[in-house]
Amino acid sequence: MESAEIRRRWLSFFEERGHTVVPSASLIADDPTLLLVPAGMVPFKPYFLGEVKPPAPRVTSVQKCVRTPDIEEVGKTTRHGTFFQMCGNFSFGDYFKEGAIKLAWELLTGSVADGGFGLEPEKLWITVYLDDDEAERIWHEVVGVPKERIQRLGKKDNFWSMGVPGPCGPCSEINYDRGPEFGAEGGPAVNDERYVEIWNLVFMQYERGQGTSKEDFEILGELPTKNIDTGLGLERLAMILQGVQNMYETDTLRVVMDKATELTGVRYGAEHGSDVSLRVVADHIRTSTMLIGDGVSPGNEGRGYVLRRIMRRAIRNMRLMGATGPVVQDLINVVIDTMGLQYPELVTDRKRIETVALAEEAAFLKAIKGGTNILDTAVTETKAAGGQVLSGDKAFLLHDTWGFPIDLTLEMAAEQGLTVDEDGFRRLMKEQRDRAKADAMAKKTGHADLHAYREIADAAGATDFTGYALTENEAV
Ligand code: ATP
Ligand code: MG
Ligand code: MG
Ligand code: MG
Question: What EC numbers are recorded for this enzyme (predicted)?
Answer without folding.
Answer: 6.1.1.7
